[in-house]
Amino acid sequence: MRVSSCRKITQILRAELDKLVTLPWICLTIMGTFILNLFLAATFTSAGLQAAAGTQSMLNIGLASMRYLQAGFIILGILATCSEYTGGQIRTTLTTIPWRGFQLSMKYLALAVITLPAAFIIAASGILYTFIMMRDTAVGFEIDTIIEALVGATGYLTLTTLLSAAMGALFRRTTPALVVLLGYYFVVSPLTIDFLPKFRSYFPDTAGSYMYIPPSADEINVLTPIQATGVLMLWTLIFITAAIVFYRRRDA
Amino acid sequence: MRAFNAELSKLFSLPGIWLAFLIGVFAPAVVAALDSLAQKEEIIAGVSTRLSEVGYIGLGFGVQGVIILGVLAVSSEYLTESSESGGGQQITTSLTVVKSRFHFLLAKAGAVTVISILLCIVAMMTIVPTTHLILGEYAPAFEWTRLIGAVCYWTFTALLALGMTLLTKNGIIPLAVLMINSSVVSFSVLLSKITKLAFYLPDRAGLEMFMFTSDKFHTPSTGSFFDRFHTPFTGGLVMFAWVVVIFIVAAIVFHRRDAAS
């Protein structure tokens, strides 16, 4: 079967894409995240308008919902890998595609293909909404910084999804994976602000946040966006490698 | 009573329950220890601001454990087994064995309540020595009323998780919503910046049973995380009202819904 490695890969990729697209929960999660994001953007905007008109950067308010938004993408990543294990689907998958390393890598690629546009649209919609609402009062509006932040946000969300998918493949059950990831991103990580300020900027979520938060006067970003992307990519690759290694060795 | 025993035995044999116990017992102590360490430096520097909340903050975060408990109690019933073992759901067996759906629900809620009360008491027993060990004479006095408030908060949260999961039949949404909401970046806190109505949301009201000691309206700020809006008793009452409403809705839906659908 060494003949057409290229064709094999495209076929696996197409199969994985098919599986992801037909999963009803994926669609629901993306739509739910989209609606939630608009709702959050509205909340942040009206809070920002109430606080002090004209003093806050529009971009910061538009990106404030990112903290909550990542929950949707964490769920997306976990669903993509854990759905294989809820029935006996994993055995069918491995019977038809007996190359485990290829199969899992293609799954991550397919997930990235779906996440990338979704993340872009969702992040952009939040910024757009804030822009429309705050057109009159906002200061410091530059199209360059907005595009940079948007690209950073899209990359951050995509990498977070892949990281969660790798965690999902390691845990193989939805609930523990969800608890561990949500617990880390929403409970453990905010608590480490006080206790590990030095190492914290190299943790996946904090490093990732430097990818999209524009540098400002009162908060110094430890890493540049490029460095931050590198750090987060390293984390993601470590987890994906671990997932693939375990996947190849473990009994399905 | 036999249904109650059965529910307890089902809960204890769940594969994910160890995670709930682990978080419920150790997370509060770890958070309290870290917070005490941070506070100790401030005390020595003489700038400590919120001494009265040091240990309790652990209880505020440890509630994640009972959220998992409440969600798992229901979502495990609706988990579809693999096609190789028949593709069934546990709920059909449970409802065949316990004739009345209402009794089933009551037994389940009872089991979750008992376990979360026990878990909260264990968590307190780990928090009190931790704060005393680190803070020594500065450790806050643990008042009974606030400890009872914390137990109520844990129990109500577990029941809310149970009721919400009963409505969605799937653990993901209640788990995500409740876990984020009980963290630092809670939705309720965000909403409370816009409207006063957010103070009546269950978690915000429930936390006032043992947190948020500063009273903006009577004394100048003592540096608590947020200012108090309700008294502890009304806070508990508001949260209890939420639990009752969600339970009534969940009970009606559960009673009328086809178990297999």
UniProtKB/TrEMBL annotation, chain A:
<keyword id="KW-0472">Membrane</keyword>
<feature type="transmembrane region" description="Helical">
    <location>
        <begin position="108"/>
        <end position="134"/>
    </location>
</feature>
<keyword id="KW-0812">Transmembrane</keyword>
<protein>
    <recommendedName>
        <fullName>ABC transporter permease</fullName>
    </recommendedName>
</protein>
<feature type="transmembrane region" description="Helical">
    <location>
        <begin position="178"/>
        <end position="196"/>
    </location>
</feature>
<feature type="transmembrane region" description="Helical">
    <location>
        <begin position="21"/>
        <end position="48"/>
    </location>
</feature>
<feature type="transmembrane region" description="Helical">
    <location>
        <begin position="68"/>
        <end position="87"/>
    </location>
</feature>
<keyword id="KW-1133">Transmembrane helix</keyword>
<feature type="transmembrane region" description="Helical">
    <location>
        <begin position="146"/>
        <end position="171"/>
    </location>
</feature>
<feature type="transmembrane region" description="Helical">
    <location>
        <begin position="226"/>
        <end position="247"/>
    </location>
</feature>
Automatic annotation (TrEMBL), chain B:
<feature type="transmembrane region" description="Helical">
    <location>
        <begin position="172"/>
        <end position="191"/>
    </location>
</feature>
<keyword id="KW-1133">Transmembrane helix</keyword>
<feature type="transmembrane region" description="Helical">
    <location>
        <begin position="105"/>
        <end position="127"/>
    </location>
</feature>
<keyword id="KW-0472">Membrane</keyword>
<feature type="transmembrane region" description="Helical">
    <location>
        <begin position="147"/>
        <end position="167"/>
    </location>
</feature>
<feature type="transmembrane region" description="Helical">
    <location>
        <begin position="12"/>
        <end position="34"/>
    </location>
</feature>
<protein>
    <submittedName>
        <fullName>Uncharacterized protein</fullName>
    </submittedName>
</protein>
<keyword id="KW-0812">Transmembrane</keyword>
<feature type="transmembrane region" description="Helical">
    <location>
        <begin position="233"/>
        <end position="254"/>
    </location>
</feature>
<feature type="transmembrane region" description="Helical">
    <location>
        <begin position="54"/>
        <end position="74"/>
    </location>
</feature>
